């Protein structure tokens, strides 16, 4: 269950950011912003073989004391960043991968929507529903 | 199968419809080609997103061009590009000896002057696909003898 999910365009501006405890929203925006540097580092690590160059999933970007940040880059250089609560240790790598897959599928559907102009903020309700299903339920 | 014919027929009707509308209105003929190209651009962006969903990350520009020639062309036109040439300085020439959108028209020089109209959409398709993958380019097409045609891609280095 994620705490914050962000979709970032290839020019590095956000297309969609949603976080669950809405009072600390700015902190999550900042976390996502700083994680972009780590994403760029991982993508450009050519020849260092730290990350499998052929894979889209980047894995754990960096852990803080409360949260872990995961990244995924598509072939069209759109980045998905997910912030997950550290206390939730039941989340395995496979689950994170499948969450990113679902995000990528929904993003592809949005791209094919004729009413969506690439580069605009994402307002799709279907996307919102899918993201809601992945976020933590806070009562 | 019938689904191949579907896109061909829709495309011919699109071109014909646009030119008919231009004749009735006041617009110059040059705008039709631009409209077709921009239609192809948007379609190319969406298509590329769908096709590259499951492929691995591309290593470099040549890799991307090869993907366009093989997988992309196969999915859209059910065949691969016959010849890819490059000068390794940003110019690529894609040659298709039997372009599906032109095979129904003629097998030689007949209707040659109408061919560019039918290539505009595909030029936009290539340009849209490349732009979504991070490459700015200019795509032009030329036909010397139907149904073979060449698409020239010029990569813009910013």
TrEMBL record, chain B:
Signal peptide: none annotated. SUPFAM superfamilies: Ligand-binding domain in the NO signalling and Golgi transport. The keyword Endoplasmic reticulum applies. Pfam families: TRAPP. GO terms for biological process: endoplasmic reticulum to Golgi vesicle-mediated transport; nervous system development. Keywords: Endoplasmic reticulum, Golgi apparatus, Neurogenesis. GO terms for cellular component: cis-Golgi network; endoplasmic reticulum; trans-Golgi network; TRAPP complex. This is Trafficking protein particle complex subunit 6B. Component of a transport protein particle (TRAPP) complex that may function in specific stages of inter-organelle traffic. Specifically involved in the early development of neural circuitry, likely by controlling the frequency and amplitude of intracellular calcium transients implicated in the regulation of neuron differentiation and survival. Belongs to the TRAPP small subunits family. BET3 subfamily. It comes from Malurus cyaneus samueli. Transmembrane segments: none annotated. InterPro entries: NO_sig/Golgi_transp_ligand-bd, TRAPP_component, TRAPPC6/Trs33. It is found in: Endoplasmic reticulum; Golgi apparatus, cis-Golgi network.
